[in-house]
Specification:
Elements lengths: L11 E3 L4 H11 L5 H20 L5 E6 L5 E6 L4 E7 L6 H7 L4 E2 L1 E6 L6 E7 L8 E5 L2 E2 L3 H12 L7 E5 L1 E2 L1 H10 L4 E4 L5 E2 L5 E2 L5 H6 L4
Parallel strand pairs: 1-12, 4-5, 4-6, 4-8, 8-10, 9-11, 10-12
Antiparallel strand pairs: 2-3, 6-7, 13-14
Helix pairs in contact: 1-2, 2-3
């Protein structure tokens, strides 16, 4: 059994496991839930995930004058942010980012597993020219074996992004995926709403949520 205790809080930031979040997960994990409800309630959780991811970025001091003429010693959000969903499932999280960051820049990465080698292959990327100077929220709802996530992170590193400037935002994960990413990229931080028990012999998460992209976009059988 894989132990992830060393990664919790340091590398992995799990949303508070309160009754509200469990109720939302209960809806979206139900195999009989309608697609409309699946989309609606996963988008609620996605917004929580994006907010948590933004909270890990650096803030700078910024004072403002209040309506009564007093000074409030506040903070300014990190600038130069870009969201990078991994096509296709990661695009389900794009609306959550746009809802809380007006005018957010969006890049794209497409990685698929080669049928012969079983290894992840980069098929497409479209990223801002200045991405090396930006903070990146890498978006993909499922972190299972970690192969796709690691390949996408390597694409960003190859473009000059600092490892510590990458926050991987994922809806659901397992210890195997956490170990795969954190052991290879120890300065990348992960934000998730659920850590599952394990992967089964077919690399499906247990208890799981099914194929997130198919359920979200309505292409499940």
């Amino acid at each position: 059994m894989i132990s992830i205790e060393a990664y919790l809080e340091k590398n992995v930031h799990l949303l508070p496991q309160n009754d509200q979040l469990r109720a939302l997960h209960t809806i979206v994990r139900d195999r009989d839930v309608s697609r409309e409800d699946f989309v609606f309630y996963t988008e609620r959780i996605n917004r929580l995930l994006v907010e948590a991811g933004l909270g890990l970025l650096p803030f700078t001091p910024h004072d403002v004058t209040t309506p009564v003429g007093a000074t409030y010693h506040g903070l300014r959000f990190a600038e130069k942010l870009v969201g990078v969903p991994i096509i296709r499932a990661g695009e389900s999280m794009e609306a959550g980012l746009r809802a809380v960051v007006r005018g957010a820049r969006i890049g794209k990465i497409l990685i698929q597993r080669d049928k012969k080698t079983k290894l992840p292959q980069l098929y497409y990327s479209n990223l801002p020219d200045d991405i090396a100077s930006r903070h990146v929220l890498l978006l993909d709802p499922m972190l299972a074996t970690g192969g796709t996530a690691n390949a996408a992170i390597q694409v960003l590193l190859d473009r000059g992004v600092s490892e510590e400037n990458i926050v991987f935002v994922t809806f659901i994960t397992v210890p195997e995926g956490i170990e795969a990413v954190c052991s290879r990229f120890p300065r990348v931080r992960i934000v998730t709403s659920a850590i599952e028990e394990r992967l089964d012999e077919n690399a499906y998460m247990l208890p799981g949520i099914g194929d997130f992209g198919d359920r979200f976009f309505g292409t499940d059988k």
